[in-house]
Amino acid sequence: MLSEKILKRWSQYFNDRDLSAISNLYAKGCILFPTFSNEIISNTEKIKEYFIKVLIEQKVSVKIEFNSVIEEKIGENYFLITGIYTFKFKRNKEINARFTFLINPMIEKPIKHHHSSQIPA
Q1: What is the pLDDT of residue 3?
Q2: Are 19 and 48 spatial neighbours (Cβ–Cβ below 8 Å)?
Q3: pLDDT category, 121, cuts 50, 70, 90?
Q4: From residue 37, how far is each of 6, 13, 24, 32, 115 by CA, in Å?
Q5: How do 111-118 and 94-103 pair as beta strands?
Q6: Residue 119, class by beta-carbon neighbours within 10 Å (0-12 exposed, 13-18 middle, 19+ buried)?
Q7: What radius of gyration do the chain's Cα atoms show?
Q8: Residue 1 pLDDT exceeds 60
């Protein structure tokens, strides 16, 4: 599954706090509905700013629950990937969230859309 490889890279870059690498996964014009902001982000610079806040300032890490991942092919090279991940903050607080990625694994910057939201208690 190509999408699993992309999800593993995304989580590795997230946990390594590699701003450049994680930002480079998002295609130009990508839309991000982030977990920890009420802003809809639609440009590369704003995506990088978001990750600076989450990865560097808040020191959040992530664990993807790969047994929850569902992949659906929706076009010739497009896949919709949904699942659950858990964010862990430096003070051991954890938040479960659900995600949706629209990806094209055939291009250098495969993420075209990313939606993430906290799962209500």
Answers
A1: 79
A2: yes
A3: confident
A4: 23, 20, 20, 10, 11
A5: antiparallel
A6: exposed
A7: 13
A8: no
The 10s digit of each residue's pLDDT in 94-105 is 999 999 999 999
The domain spans of the chain are 2-118
Q: Which two tokens stand for residue 41?
A: 């982000």
Report the Cα–Cα distance between both ends of the chain, in Å, rounded.
Answer: 31
| CATH of span 2-118 | 3.10.450.50
pLDDT digits (tens, 9 = 90+) for 19-53: 999 999 999 999 999 999 999 999 889 999 999 99
The pTM of the full predicted model, rounded to 2 decimals, is 0.93
Q: Residue 17: what residue type?
A: R
